Structures are given as structure tokens and as C-alpha cells.
Structure to design on (242 residues):
């Protein structure tokens, strides 16, 4: 039984990640920022569905290095160490740069990029060997998108961070990889204008948005023994929308 920490676990992809690791027989720390009740309810439901495995809710703002260090340590203590860290927490605040409030622009980078750095830095004390780090990036980091320069910059930064960290930690038996989802049916994309949804569907050869469980399956693979020689990879999960 492995110990897994999933950040941003109360969202659409996050919940699917928790469920997928639970089905693998793992114990999971369910991270939240503001949705404490949802995280605790999920932990209780998972514990009922998977007796013998441990599920704990841990809270904190990933953009605050001290808060990140605290909840990572809480997770590691509750689960007797860590084997897998999945950096899934993220936000978006879409607006063209000309119209952007630069403080809000920075908030996106603080959560989506620096938040990952903070969690990894804190987790290195606890990750066992063989360890796994999987970062959830985005198709937007590869392609860019109108009105999402902040989000694109943060997610593109994750690509370089992932590849560099893979070189730093490979010698310790810790692999570092990323998944880059295309547009996925989640609460984050539910508010997209219909015209924008149709535009992305039209450019996707599979002709639809992805499902959270499809992304989770790829994360679980990268965290598994089957991916023991995969390091520094960016796995694009986008239906062919390159």
C-alpha cells in the first residue's frame, strides 16, 4: 500500500485522482484550500468504500510556502511517509494582458507554478524510494490561448520544471513526470462560452472534451511501477488537439 498526496483534490480531476489511487489500494491525503467540508466528506466516503486504506483531508494554500510545508508534513505524518506526490492544484483568471490586473495575473503563477515548487520542496523530506512526482500541466502551456497568458506561462513553466527536476531526482530513485490535459469536462471548464467550447471541440480529432477519469488513469500510470523508466516525460492527454 502506497501513500499518495493529491493537491487540489476537491475539483473534477482531483476527485477522479483520489478515486483512481484508492482503486489501486493506496492511501491518499486529500488536499483542499477552501473546500474543507468537501474534502472531509470525500475522505470519509473513501474510507467507507475502501476499508483498510487511510484517507485524510489536509488543507492549505499552495502559494504560501509555509502553508504548503505544513500540510505536506501533516499528510506524511498521517500516512507514515509519502510515495507519490500529485501536483494538481490550480486556478485560472482569464483576461487579456492589456486588460489584466497584474496582481491577479501573478496570483495564477503563484498557485499554478510556485505552488508546485513549494509542494515538491516540502515533500522531498518525506518521499521514499522509489518515489513518484506527477505534475498536472495543460495543453495551454504548449499552445497558448487568447486571454490566458498567465495560465499559459505557469503551465509552460511546469514543463521545464518537470524536465529539470527529473534530472535532479532521478539518481535518488524519484521520477518526475507531467500530464498535459486538453480541455476536460470539469467545473473549471463548465463556465466556458459555448462558442469557445465548440471551437476547441472542432480542433480536437476525437470531437469531444476529455473526462476527468481519463486524465487520472494517465497519472496513475506515471505513478506506477510500470512507468519505472519514464522520467522527465510530458504525457499529452488532449484527444489529438495539438
Amino acid at each position: 500500500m502506497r501513500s499518495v498526496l493529491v493537491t487540489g483534490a476537491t475539483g473534477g480531476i482531483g476527485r477522479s485522482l483520489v478515486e483512481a489511487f484508492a482503486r489501486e489500494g493506496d492511501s491518499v491525503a486529500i488536499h483542499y484550500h477552501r473546500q474543507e467540508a468537501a474534502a472531509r466528506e470525500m475522505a470519509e466516503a473513501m474510507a467507507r468504500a475502501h476499508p483498510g486504506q487511510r484517507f485524510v483531508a489536509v488543507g492549505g494554500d499552495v502559494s504560501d510556502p509555509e502553508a504548503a510545508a505544513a500540510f505536506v508534513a501533516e499528510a506524511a505524518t498521517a500516512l507514515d511517509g509519502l510515495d507519490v506526490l500529485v501536483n494538481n492544484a490550480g486556478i485560472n483568471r482569464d483576461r487579456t494582458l492589456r486588460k489584466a490586473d497584474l496582481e491577479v495575473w501573478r496570483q495564477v503563477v503563484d498557485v499554478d507554478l510556485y505552488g508546485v515548487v513549494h509542494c515538491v520542496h516540502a515533500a522531498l523530506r518525506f518521499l521514499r524510494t522509489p518515489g513518484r512526482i506527477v505534475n498536472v500541466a495543460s495543453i495551454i502551456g504548449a499552445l497558448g490561448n487568447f486571454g490566458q497568458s498567465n495560465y499559459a506561462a505557469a503551465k509552460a513553466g511546469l514543463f521545464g520544471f518537470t524536465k529539470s527536476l527529473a534530472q535532479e531526482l532521478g539518481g535518488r530513485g524519484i521520477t518526475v513526470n507531467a500530464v498535459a490535459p486538453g480541455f476536460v469536462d470539469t467545473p473549471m471548464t463548465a463556465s466556458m462560452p459555448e462558442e469557445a467550447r465548440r471551437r476547441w471541440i472542432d480542433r480536437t480529432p476525437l470531437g469531444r472534451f476529455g473526462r476527468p477519469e481519463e486524465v487520472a488513469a494517465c497519472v496513475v500510470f506515471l505513478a506506477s511501477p510500470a512507468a519505472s523508466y519514464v522520467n522527465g516525460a510530458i504525457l499529452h492527454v488532449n484527444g489529438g488537439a495539438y
About this structure: The mean pLDDT is 96.
